Amino acid sequence: MSVYLFNFIPQTLEKDKISSKEYIFTGKYSLKTISLKEINDLPSISDKLALKIYKYKAKVRSFDDFMKIKGIGAKKVEMLKSYIDF
Fold first, then answer.
1. Which of 12, 76, 77, 82 is the most exposed place for a label (fewest CB within 10 A)?
2. pLDDT, the chain, mean
């Protein structure tokens, strides 16, 4: 993915190093309407974990419920709070 920064020089962003959402995303995703692609685009979320979150999202009522998904711990829950709302 390319992003044009202040001097309009295209910069290639790698998912694990820096996220384009830091420049573009200004709000939070609704857990009810978030797509699999949007979950997968979140920082530190692998394809496999994105699929687990997508399948389980209907059962999630609070951020503590994310801890029931294998592969999500306290650090990922704190990260998700920045991007997802109920």
1. 12
2. 76
In sequence order, which residues have a C-beta less than 8 Å from that of residue 66 and are 6 or more positions away? 53, 60, 72, 76, 77, 80
| CA–CA dist 73, 21 (Å, integer) | 22
14 Cα distance to chain centroid:
15
What's the average pLDDT block by block, 10 residues per block, for the chain (86 residues)? Answer: 39 45 63 91 92 91 90 90 86
CATH entry, 28-86, from 3.40.50.2300, 1.10.760.10, 1.10.150.320, 2.120.10.30: 1.10.150.320
List pLDDT tens digits, range 7-22: 333 444 444 444 544 4
